[in-house]
């Protein structure tokens, strides 16, 4: 039961002891931060005959997330009173909240000098600070140098990696935590499940689900929501729905949104709308993320009018102001159906400054519809935001090639070379039980390279018979075209697929699942449609934009991505 500080306060007035005042100060520091409480805390602090580390830390903690905590910390050092682990943990949290990297690094130095940096409590605070400042390598260094790492330390590191899109590192840290024999908690499990969704490793998600059952967390709503999110991002919407249905009556709007988002990534608008109806029927009020899932579902299905309709409903009927992400979704689907002028007008008049994602989306739409002049405009706007954005050059070059404007293509490539812009390297990965195999284009380092390349030769021969033609850059000299055809055939996603087939990554009849860090290229997309017929298997690829389900020569994206 939570103790009301006013009860202790009345006793302290009567007894007037230093220990009572210190205890009271600690209680007030943990209570709601109101102007009245802040005034009382300062008065109590000044009434103390002497100030120890507990009273100083209580004062600093109360003013956390404000620069006043720094002011009181400096006063503490001048008195002098040596801070302890809890003092530094509170201060590191304040630095992260205020994005004050400089002061945080100085605090790190002071903690090192005083010998309290590597206690589990202060180390956890420091790891969290560095992760929130996007300096995960420094966080990992602190973690590795902490001799007594407890569950909090591990959980903080796992969550930090997950929040910084370093899913493989988070999974490794979770495995290390289990090897140490430390008990999992709600934070470590939700963090590692976020990481699983980031890298889309389905088997790892199933294994962690089993771990949740064994440790008794399968009924925890926070972990359950993370499971729904993780399964959804891995494309396992049936498993996600199973977890969701068990916890439905206890799910908050976050859990409902996670389930809807999982369906939206698949373009399954019907199930998204079914869930939306159930959600309102259960008295759950939709928020901005709910409508983002709805817009995404209709956008992935290519239904521009429905996206516009729900975009307006969001504002007029539900009183929610669209975010940049909602506008990007609307702009993307309008571009997809060829309404590029309308999409551009929205990008220029919306209440936000259009970011790179907006102009890149419009540039891709121009490329898809062969609008070379519009593509030049969108590319220019994208380069105004980032002169070294490789997609601006690559997509523009592709659309100019299709339009036969070869002189302009050469100028774009010359400019790209002059500015030393290189295309981001593609990599793909595929999961086996307990393992993740990563491939780069032309990769020959894998232990099964010989079998992989032999399988690719076999597949190419088969799909050529079915009418497959490589999608090669037409501006290249004839000699370069031959080389380019070879390079295309050894893209990372093709290597991953060949490995899946030779290693029997999935039992017969089950889908082969591949993840890629970039958008799948046009040639691989075409090849996978033919390969799905040759191997008579469903092939699922999650690229940076969406899920592609290849089956019987077709793709779920309807050739737009």
Automatic annotation (TrEMBL):
Ranges where the DYW domain occurs: 467-561
Pfam families: DYW_deaminase, E_motif, Eplus_motif, PPR, PPR_2
Superkingdom in the source lineage: Eukaryota
PPR repeats by residue range: 252-286
UniProt keyword Repeat, yes or no: yes
MF terms in GO: RNA binding; zinc ion binding
GO terms classed as biological process: RNA modification
Keywords: Repeat
InterPro entries (UniProt xref): DYW_dom, E2_motif, E_motif, PPR_At4g14850-like_plant, PPR_rpt, TPR-like_helical_dom_sf
Matches recorded under PANTHER family: DYW DOMAIN-CONTAINING PROTEIN, PENTATRICOPEPTIDE REPEAT-CONTAINING PROTEIN
Protein family (similarity comment): Belongs to the PPR family. PCMP-H subfamily.
Protein name per Swiss-Prot or TrEMBL: Pentatricopeptide repeat-containing protein
Native species: Heracleum sosnowskyi
